[in-house]
């Protein structure tokens, strides 16, 4: 911990709010910038919330003038893959152009460290379904491309400036705060674990299985699911690494094992104690058949040790959160 302030963009959103909570519990000074388009004011449990867009120069100028910021954690982004295929310019505007503006103002303010929320979507469709940090980046949707372009900007900026960064490439994030204080609350969310849990609590009448003819053991897509609590911890480890003088790097965030859509839904049914309604549907545009992390580098580089590497724990925390929402104990 230092006397400086951390700017967290998108800190009222799903992943950002969990990182803000962990930073706050660690005693860090935080200012959150979020336009609340998909985030929630009540999810910000620590720090000051500034409502505004990350790509707005006037907002950024005011924040950097009013706070002694040496670290930026950048989450603010659109994240829905099918939407990025249908409306790519929306993603390049919000994910790439806004990041460029943020970087420009960060450099002016002499920000030393950036922790960037990237994605495994930068890999596209790996030949064997697994991706390491050295795998070819060949995104198949605008979401992945918009994030990869920001990685390139960070790389090029860091090459000629004192700024150093860690880009964390997330695989499939799920779960919620173990105490169910915060979680994924976005209406009409597309994350499979959340959708299946919403069926359990009666918010939806079915969960769709998009694609049953993939070249996988049961024909459905296979993903590496990581608990949001472990993912948030990776950001704090990345911050400690940079403060200790670590060089700029890019790291996968996953557990290194995959579960199919059917396997995840089966676990939801097991935790719920009853079956849920499932409907098969065509494949969605932009979805690879299999995407699993090779994720040893994050452990050796950051000393990261996940605590929730268990599909049942992921599902149980997701369902506890959905039950809290359904009971009206957290307003949306």
Walk me through what this model shows.
With 332 residues, the protein is an alpha/beta fold. 38% of the residues lie in helices and 19% in strands. It has helices at residues 14-25, 57-66, 81-86, 88-108, 142-159, 192-200, 228-243, 261-272, 297-302, 311-326; strands spanning 5-9, 29-34, 48-51, 69-74, 113-119, 130-131, 164-170, 172-174, 207-210, 222-223, 225-227, 249-253, 259-260, 278-281, 290-293. The strands form four sheets. A seven-stranded parallel beta sheet has the order 3-2-1-4-5-7-12, sandwiched between helices. Strands 6-15-10-13 form a four-stranded mixed beta sheet. A two-stranded parallel ribbon has the order 8-11. Helix 1 (14-25) links the parallel strand 1 and strand 2. The longest helix has 21 residues, at 88-108. It is globular, with a radius of gyration of 19 Å. It starts with a strand and ends in a 6-residue tail after the last helix.
Number of helical runs?
10
Number of strands: 15
- The value of Rg in angstroms is 19 Å
H/E element sequence: EHEEHEHHEEHEEHEEEHEEHEEHH
Q: Would you tell me the structural class of the helices and strands?
A: alpha/beta
Q: Could you name the ranges where pLDDT drops below 50 across 5 or more consecutive residues?
A: none
Largest sheet: 7 strands, parallel
């Amino acid at each position: 911990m230092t006397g400086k302030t951390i700017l967290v963009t998108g800190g009222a959103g799903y992943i950002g709010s969990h990182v803000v909570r962990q930073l706050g519990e660690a005693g860090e000074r935080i200012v959150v910038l979020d336009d609340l388009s998909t985030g929630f004011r009540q999810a910000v449990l620590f720090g000051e919330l500034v409502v505004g867009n990350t790509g707005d120069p006037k907002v950024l100028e005011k924040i950097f003038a009013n706070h002694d910021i040496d670290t930026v954690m950048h989450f603010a982004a659109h994240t829905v893959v099918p939407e990025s295929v249908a409306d790519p310019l929306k993603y390049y505007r919000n994910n790439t152009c806004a990041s460029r503006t943020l970087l420009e103002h960060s450099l002016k303010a002499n920000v030393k460290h950036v922790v960037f929320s990237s994605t495994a979507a930068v890999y596209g469709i790996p030949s064997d379904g697994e991706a390491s940090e050295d795998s070819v980046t060949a995104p198949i949707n605008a979401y992945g491309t918009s994030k990869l372009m920001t990685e390139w900007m960070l790389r090029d900026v860091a090459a000629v400036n004192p700024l150093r960064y860690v880009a964390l490439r997330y695989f499939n994030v799920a779960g919620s705060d173990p105490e169910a204080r915060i979680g994924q609350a976005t209406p009409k969310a597309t994350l499979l674990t959340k959708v299946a849990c919403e069926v359990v609590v009666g918010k939806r009448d079915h969960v769709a299985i998009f694609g049953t003819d993939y070249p996988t053991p049961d024909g459905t897509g296979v993903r590496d699911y990581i608990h949001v609590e472990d993912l948030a911890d990776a950001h704090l480890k990345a911050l400690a690494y940079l403060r200790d003088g670590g060089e700029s790097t890019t790291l996968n965030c996953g557990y290194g094992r995959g579960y199919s859509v059917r396997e995840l839904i089966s676990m939801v049914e097991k935790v719920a104690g009853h079956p849920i309604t499932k409907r098969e549907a065509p494949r969605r545009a932009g979805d690879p058949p299999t995407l699993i992390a090779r994720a040893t580098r994050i452990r050796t580089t950051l000393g990261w040790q996940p605590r929730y590497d268990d599909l049942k724990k992921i599902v149980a925390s997701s369902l506890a959160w959905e039950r809290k929402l359904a009971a009206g104990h957290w307003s949306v």
